[in-house]
Amino acid sequence: MRPLRYSINVTLDGCCDHRAGSADEELHRHAVENLNRADALLFGRVTYEMMEAAFRPPARTGADPSWTEPFARTIDAARKYVVSATLDRVDWNAELVRGDLGSAVRRLKEEPGKGLFVGGVKLPLALAELGLIDEYEFVVHPRVAGHGPTLFAGLSKYLDLKLVSRLEFGSGVVATRYVPRG
Description:
Elements: E1 4-11, H1 25-35, E2 40-44, H2 45-55, H3 69-77, E3 79-83, E4 94-97, H4 101-110, E5 116-118, H5 122-129, E6 135-141, E7 161-168, E8 174-180
Helix pairs in contact: 1-3, 2-3
């Protein structure tokens, strides 16, 4: 069974707005390494549309630093599954996931391969509620945003996690990985 891994950039006060963190070459390299640990990406509609707008060719204008290119190429080429009840169709190496979320994700996890990778805010909350996430990575930026959205807002129960790794970046960002306890 391939594991479902979740990674999110978050500020010290829990803000998960992608504009609240800081990006640099080292963090982009780390993100590419994460994506390369998966056979496919699992996105909700909002994350899919945001990534498509930013990284689907020819969306890239050349205004971004050259060190963002490996991430852009990796995400562009990746197989994508999009959980959405509102989209009628997707493309960009993507397929819609419909119906019961738990059953659909369990089927994807049962396929052979090295893993699935999920990002975003709302979909991971639903997956955490179902106990389907096998690894959590919190990429914590040394910033207080003072606004949301916040990490796992509305979670109905505690997630007890065990620390498995910690990586510090030159920028002061710290990436911690956890697995569910028990």
